[in-house]
Design brief:
alpha/beta; Rossmann fold; Dihydrodipicolinate Reductase, domain 2; 2 domains; nine-stranded mixed sheet; six-stranded parallel sheet; 15 helices; 36% helix
């Protein structure tokens, strides 16, 4: 009997993502027949009450046509629950007994997989409790959900606590963006086609933009977000992972060691932004009152109930100082209460060296590659084509898109939640799409230098109206280089 142990099993992540993901894998026959799913949280629930909670989550977050009664019943039969306060070491003994004895005469667990989603301050007590209860054996794997600290020092403390029990080979740090199909398609696009890689360098590319825009505010995360801010919430993990995948050298093989070796080289090649360059290479903002999708919304301080120096928007001009990318800017932008929800990698190629076309309408625009992760996954290449017609005054050109909508191109495949990929890889022991310790620490080192630069220069967030693309200074960050944000 194998067990997948989910900490924080009554929380939002478990309900919205983990339960639907595991249900999808189960319905497709991808979970081992003998796998139990054991939830652990502080709430005191009976088994039937927890199964009802999970069934409610499935009915809320899974498409109705997929909720076949036999699939739901089979999945709920896997589910168990153990009340657990991780600050009480003795309670881990009850958890151990539930995992080892099981129910109805089940065999002891022989392949424990743990998904740990908790506050950073609870990582240490949880690891210690698992170890004291004998739940950290050689076959146990541990997945860690962010946040993994709030700076390099606290991240190292968490990683040290984990490493004292779990070697790196059995530690799976999650960045759910790496489970998205389009993020993995970035690797397929680059390294599975002869078309792009010869141009994927400083000779062929003018600049790169990575945008993670959110129309929502901080919702129910006010306390956490005010202590974190946009830089640590989005840039330190998701955006730097997207940058690393975009800029990495071709790995020798598609395996965990080769891929992550190349990513960490990029992260260590990031040019530091410090007290000398923080003011010229970064812009921070905080949304005020405004309108999103035609509806009025409050400002961040109004939602919080007090003034705050936390940034809800950040734009950065970054450089990767190596041969491939020397001199090419990577513009990063993320924020709350922006006009729309959108995550994309925008790559502008350099213009042709000489235009053979003359006359009105013959102006050439550089080619652009747009890799969109959300809301709809798509890949678009914008190229120059001739306008139809009889061109007596010279050929007229127009930019036109070559579109690949991932849902349309693969309509015979179900669109999966990113956590489905990651949970399956955790069960299988494939760490390619997980983040290694040296990656995390390289990311934090770069982020900490930026925050120190903000402090040294007394930088505070500039106001921007909700429903706009951030402070006007963010426009200046790119326009000084003759670049316009792709909105």
């Amino acid at each position: 009997m194998k067990s997948l142990l989910l900490f924080g099993a009554t929380g939002d992540l478990a309900r919205r993502m983990l339960a639907p993901s595991l249900f999808g894998l189960d319905c497709d026959g991808l979970l081992p027949d003998d796998l139990r799913i054991v939830g652990a949280a502080r709430s005191h629930l009976e088994q039937d009450a927890y199964r009802s909670l999970i069934e409610g989550a499935l009915r809320e977050f899974v498409e109705p046509d997929r909720l076949r009664p036999q699939c739901v019943a089979k999945f709920l039969d896997r589910v168990r629950y153990v009340p657990l306060d991780v600050t009480q070491p003795d309670q881990f003994l009850a958890l151990r007994d539930a995992l080892l004895r099981g129910e109805d005469g089940e065999k002891p667990a022989d392949g424990l997989r743990i998904f740990l989603s908790t506050a950073p301050s609870l990582f240490g007590p949880t690891i210690a409790g698992l170890q004291s209860a004998g739940l950290t054996g050689d076959e146990t794997r541990l997945a860690l959900e962010k946040p993994l600290g709030h700076d390099l020092e606290s991240s190292r403390a968490i990683n040290d606590a984990v490493a004292s029990v779990f070697p790196e080979s059995r530690t799976f740090r999650i960045d759910h963006y790496l489970g998205k199909e389009t993020v993995q398609n970035l690797l397929a696009l680059r390294f599975g086609n002869a078309l792009f890689e010869p141009l994927w360098n400083a000779q062929g590319i003018d600049h790169v933009q990575i945008t993670v825009a959110e129309a929502v505010g901080v919702e129910g995360r006010l306390g956490f977000y005010d202590e974190t801010g946009a830089l640590r919430d989005m840039v330190q993990n998701h955006m730097l992972q997207l940058l690393a995948l975009t800029a990495m050298e071709p790995p020798a093989h598609f395996d965990a060691t080769s891929v992550r070796d190349e990513k960490v080289k990029v992260l260590r090649s990031l040019r530091p932004i410090n007290h000398e360059t923080a003011m010229t290479h970064t812009v921070i903002g905080q949304y005020g009152p405004g309108a999103v999708s035609g509806a009025p919304v409050k400002g961040y301080a109004d939602e919080l109930g007090r003034s705050s120096a936390t940034e809800t928007f950040v734009a950065i001009k970054a450089h990767v100082d190596n041969w491939r990318w020397r001199g090419i800017p990577f513009y990063l932008r993320t924020g709350k209460r922006l006009p729309t929800r959108s995550t994309e990698i925008f790559i502008q190629l350099k213009a042709v060296p000489h235009s053979i076309f003359a006359g009105p309408g013959a102006g050439l625009l550089p080619n652009k590659l747009i890799i969109r992760l959300q809301p709809e996954e798509a890949i678009t290449l914008r190229v120059m084509l001739k306008e139809p017609g009889l061109d007596r005054a010279g050929m007229r050109l127009r930019e036109a898109p070559l579109d690949i909508s991932i849902p349309n191109a693969f309509a015979d495949f179900r669109r999966r939640i990113a956590y489905e990929r990651l949970l399956l890889d955790l069960l299988d022991g494939d760490s390619t799409l997980f983040v290694r310790r040296d990656e995390v620490e390289a990311q934090w080192a770069w982020i900490d230098a930026i925050r120190a630069g903000w402090a040294a220069n007394g930088m505070t967030p500039r106001p921007y109206a909700a429903g706009t693309w951030g402070p006007s200074a963010a426009i200046g960050l790119t326009e000084r280089d003759g670049v316009t944000w792709h909105d």
